């Protein structure tokens, strides 16, 4: 692969990391001891831990089957079909045209995965994980979309050697182009496809932002990489006093225009087609938002976007960055960190962006000039974490002197 990827900065070794190394080496020796497995299963105090670890490893091995069970249920439209309407194997076999003896394997698998559950009289209904699948079309669309990544990764070593040969790289027209491609009909179709997917999948992220940040003090919000304008549409209802600016590539903003018109928001929203690779960001907003934008791009581009956002804001203005972020190092192996693996591979297949930790993004925001950079706590960080930075109202020291 000709492209070189950004590496996260490594921290210099300290006494603490040396002690941690020694402890981890000792743990590894204990785990590798031939008698430990049987001993720990025989001990009621440790049995749960060994069982849990074994289940987890089995889960890793079998994970591809789990996601294909999910995909099969989506393609057969089982979640919507069973929502409020449990059905028997026979009825489902008729509906799906799959032989009952085979379909029951799928249904049994979906039950143990929590997607479906058994109901009375031999019927199947939605399980706890099936309910959100029925209610949020965006999740089903992402499951279908992830099939591209699944295909790209069929030979994982070939994928690592050349990640951009597959369908995911092809799907994202801007991810490999310094200058976004001219909008030929084929390219236009790609912009429409990804913008629809983004709008469908943005709902959870928007909820995280709206329920975590107070927009009251702002006057005008510019959403950079605004897509079809779903975030702006929902924020417009949430905070009716706000005016808006949307910045995105021209074909995407053409879609946003239709969407905003349909919602009666044309008067409150100005469209600014352009590329943050080549154009400055327009001024006039006192809050700039970057929602699921930075992780698509390499460090140099992200730094450039942050700098342009800083330049476009007035003194006292605010930048809000919201996207999935990596777990910091100490949490590796923790259940919450498992989603990172998905994003690492997704972003590699897509282009030269990467998943960053909040600390990395905060350092980049400070580098661009933002002060009071902080994390906004939110309820469901798996959808997005949120960072804020302010453009200081203080004059630079030497300029302050000349004013006095
Ligand atoms: C992953 S999508 C996120 C869209 C939306 N913010 C969301 O969360 O659903 C990234 C957005 O950045 C836009 N984008 C990519 N490259 C761009 C560029 N050079 N200039 C302006 N916008 C760009 C894309 O068109 C797309 O709408």
Description:
The protein has 404 residues and is of the alpha/beta class. The protein has two domains: 34-135, Winged helix-like DNA-binding domain superfamily/Winged helix DNA-binding domain (Arc Repressor Mutant, subunit A), CATH 1.10.10.10; 174-390, Vaccinia Virus protein VP39 (Rossmann fold, 3-Layer(aba) Sandwich). Helix content is 50%, strand content 12%. It is built from 18 helices and ten strands. The protein has helices at residues 15-32, 36-42, 47-75, 78-82, 89-96, 100-112, 130-135, 137-152, 156-161, 167-171, 185-201, 203-210, 230-238, 250-262, 299-312, 338-350, 358-367, 397-403; strands at residues 87-88, 116-119, 123-126, 220-224, 243-248, 269-273, 287-291, 318-323, 371-376, 385-390. The strands form two sheets. The protein has a seven-stranded mixed beta sheet, with helices on both faces. A hairpin with an 8-residue loop joins strand 9 (371-376) and strand 10 (385-390). Helix 2 (36-42) crosses helix 3 (47-75), helix 3 crosses helix 8 (137-152) and helix 5 (89-96) packs across helix 6 (100-112). It is globular. The chain starts with 14 loop residues before the first helix and ends with a helix. The model has no long low-confidence stretch (mean pLDDT 93). The site of S-adenosylmethionine has 18 residues, from loops.
């Amino acid at each position: 692969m000709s492209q070189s990827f950004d590496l996260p900065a490594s921290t210099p070794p300290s006494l603490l990391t040396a002690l941690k190394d020694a402890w981890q080496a000792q743990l590894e020796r204990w785990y590798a001891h031939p008698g430990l497995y049987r001993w720990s299963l025989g001990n009621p105090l440790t049995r749960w831990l060994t069982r849990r670890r074994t289940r987890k490893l089995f889960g890793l091995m079998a994970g591809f089957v789990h996601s294909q069970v999910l995909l099969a249920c989506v393609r057969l439209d089982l979640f919507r079909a069973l929502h409020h309407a449990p059905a028997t194997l026979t009825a489902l076999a008729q509906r799906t045209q799959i032989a009952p003896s085979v379909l029951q394997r799928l249904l049994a698998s979906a039950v143990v995965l929590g997607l479906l559950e058994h109901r009375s009289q031999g019927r199947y209904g939605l399980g706890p994980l099936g309910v959100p699948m029925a209610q949020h079309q965006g999740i089903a669309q992402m499951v279908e979309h992830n099939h591209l990544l699944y295909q790209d990764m069929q030979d994982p070593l070939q994928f690592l050697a050349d990640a951009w040969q597959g369908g995911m790289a092809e799907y994202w027209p801007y991810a490999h182009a310094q200058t976004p491609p001219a909008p030929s009909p084929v390219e236009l179709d790609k912009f429409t496809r990804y913008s629809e997917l983004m709008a469908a999948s943005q709902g959870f992220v928007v909820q995280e932002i709206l329920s975590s940040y107070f927009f009251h003090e702002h006057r005008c919000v510019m959403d950079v990489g605004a897509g079809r304008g779903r975030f702006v549409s929902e924020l417009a209802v949430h905070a009716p006093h706000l005016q808006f600016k949307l910045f995105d590539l021209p074909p995407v903003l053409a879609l946003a225009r239709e969407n905003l018109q349909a919602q009666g928001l044309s008067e409150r929203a100005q469209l600014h087609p352009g590329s943050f690779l080549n154009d400055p960001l327009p001024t006039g907003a006192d809050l700039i938002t970057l929602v699921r934008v930075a992780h698509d791009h390499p460090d140099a581009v992200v730094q450039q976007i942050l700098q342009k956002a800083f330049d476009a804001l007035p003194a006292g203005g605010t930048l809000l960055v919201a996207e999935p972020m990596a777990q910091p190092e100490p949490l590796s192996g923790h259940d919450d960190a498992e989603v990172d693996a998905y994003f690492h591979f997704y972003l590699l297949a897509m282009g030269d962006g990467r998943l960053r930790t909040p600390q990395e993004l905060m350092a980049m925001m400070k580098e661009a000039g933002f002060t009071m950079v902080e994390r906004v706590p939110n309820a469901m960080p798996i959808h997005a974490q949120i960072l804020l930075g302010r453009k200081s109202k203080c004059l630079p020291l030497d300029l302050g002197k000349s004013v006095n």
